[in-house]
Amino acid sequence: MTTLTADLKKTTKKATKKVPVRGMMDNVMEQFNSAADQINLHPNIRKILSITNNEILVNFPVKMDNGEVEIFTGYRVQHNNALGPYKGGLRYHPTVDLDAARALAMWMTWKTSLAGLPYGGGKGGIKLDPSKYSEGELERITRRFTFALADNIGPEHDIPAPDVNTNSQTMAWIADTYMSTRPPAERNANQHIVTGKPDGSGGLEGRDRATGYGVYLTIKFWAEKNDVNLEGKKFIVQGFGNVGYWAALFLERDGAKLVAVQDAYGCIQNQKGIAVEELSKYTKINEGSIADFPDAKPVNKDKFFGLDCDIVIPAALGNQITKENASKIKGKLIAEGANGPTNVEGEKILLDKGITIIPDILCNSGGVVGSYFEWLQNRNGEIWQLDEVMAKLDKKMKESFNKVYDYSKNENIDMRTAAFCIAIERIEKAYIQRGIFP
Ligand SMILES: NC(=O)C1=CN([C@@H]2O[C@H](COP(=O)(O)OP(=O)(O)OC[C@H]3O[C@@H](n4cnc5c(N)ncnc54)[C@H](OP(=O)(O)O)[C@@H]3O)[C@@H](O)[C@H]2O)C=CC1
Ligand SMILES: O=C(O)CCC(=O)C(=O)O
């Protein structure tokens, strides 16, 4: 008996000895600090940028279809607004918590700064699995969340947008609820409270594809700089949602070949090529998932990042490329459609192998640039045409890409550190110009 208890204690001790799990905040802070060291950032500004300005947590009740009330927890973290109103998406996912919202808000600050936008960074969402709720429940959850947040967001203060598991419908509910909290004469002047709305309700033509198109463009610009022809190049995509689908479609149109896809429910491969539109049509009759697509073979999800390809596009969640799988990656280019998909340990392995990473704050910035266009459109009472939007997006993405690429070559540093340096230097300049720091 004594032996058994002792054994049990030993096993319990072993099992509970925690291997520290790197959170998203560890990741973004290490990225920030190495860029801050590189540019010798003023210590006072380093202190300010290392913390978030505001963290809003709301618990709110919602009546479910069965008549019972469920309590939800929502977050909005406002990291920094030195350059303009807080800007960033809302995520509905079980992994949403303060750590994730803080990290994602910080990435938004660097992203908007790098893109040269008049915005700061914010992010938030609700901790929930949307697949467990009906459309009507999701609408009520979204409206109650908006109501709970209403005093802390605003079209000139903090402007949410879509992210994982939120879309133009979610944004329409938010806009409608927020506008109804304003006095009648001001309602229409608040349409730019969110971006990513449906195009019949103040949304921008092209915002749906803006992030994925931007991902494609950064790959194309990199290929042009390096004399690489995209024709026939094989790529794999993790996440076949808004970002993954559009990025894959534009790459396919340029002659590249989608050979593997992973989503939350499955992982498939066909080295001869997977037709993007066919796969998209299939997901619509398969509860949104790519699993069991007839023109591809299922693959174990742990093998995904090691599959044969030239380009890897993580377009799902954070912390996907780590020291556990980075050394298996065969592609020579990683284009980060997702936010924070590569952690610092994974990145070190990739860089040592000579793999190029187009960092998230550059690669997926087409989304927030599109959002900026939508915000301007609403503010000015205009309606922009799709070709105009795409041409402006192209120009903005090219400027950002060239800035990062040239900085990284001139300073002999990787593209992520270069992107962070440019972003932080712009914010540093704003603080210095205001005369806060001698
Ligand atoms: N939407 C935007 O404009 C922008 C988005 N981003 C970033 O891009 C990424 C994707 O966002 P978005 O496309 O909008 O989100 P969506 O909700 O449209 O799509 C998310 C995709 O990721 C998949 N996914 C979720 N969990 C996993 C998992 N554990 N393993 C593999 N795949 C998974 C989902 O699969 P399933 O459908 O099976 O659940 C789905 O295909 C996020 O990191 C987001 O922050 C960045 C900039 C802008
Ligand atoms: O469009 C936006 O405002 C932000 C989108 C977003 O959340 C992101 O870029 O990560």
Hetero groups in this structure are: NADPH dihydro-nicotinamide-adenine-dinucleotide phosphate, 2-oxoglutaric acid
DSSP E strands, number? 12
What radius of gyration results from the CA coordinates? 22 Å
Query: What percentage of the residues does DSSP assign to strands (E)?
Result: 15-25%
CATH arch. level architecture of the domain at 208-363: 3-Layer(aba) Sandwich
Low-confidence stretches: 1-19
Question: What is the count of DSSP helices, taking H or I runs of 4+ residues?
Answer: 14
Q: Output the CATH homologous superfamily of the domain at 208-363.
A: NAD(P)-binding Rossmann-like Domain
Which class best fits the helix and strand makeup? alpha/beta
Shape: globular
Main-sheet strand order equals: 9-8-7-6-10-11-12
CATH class of the domain at 208-363: Alpha Beta
Structure report:
It is a single chain. The chain is of the alpha/beta class and 438 residues long. Among the domains are: 136 residues, Rossmann fold, CATH 3.40.50; 156 residues, Rossmann fold, CATH 3.40.50.720. The protein is built from 14 helices and twelve strands. A seven-stranded mixed sheet has the order 9-8-7-6-10-11-12, sandwiched between helices. Helix 5 packs across helix 6. The chain is globular. The relative contact order is 0.13. The N terminus is likely disordered. The site of NADPH dihydro-nicotinamide-adenine-dinucleotide phosphate has 26 residues, from helix 8.
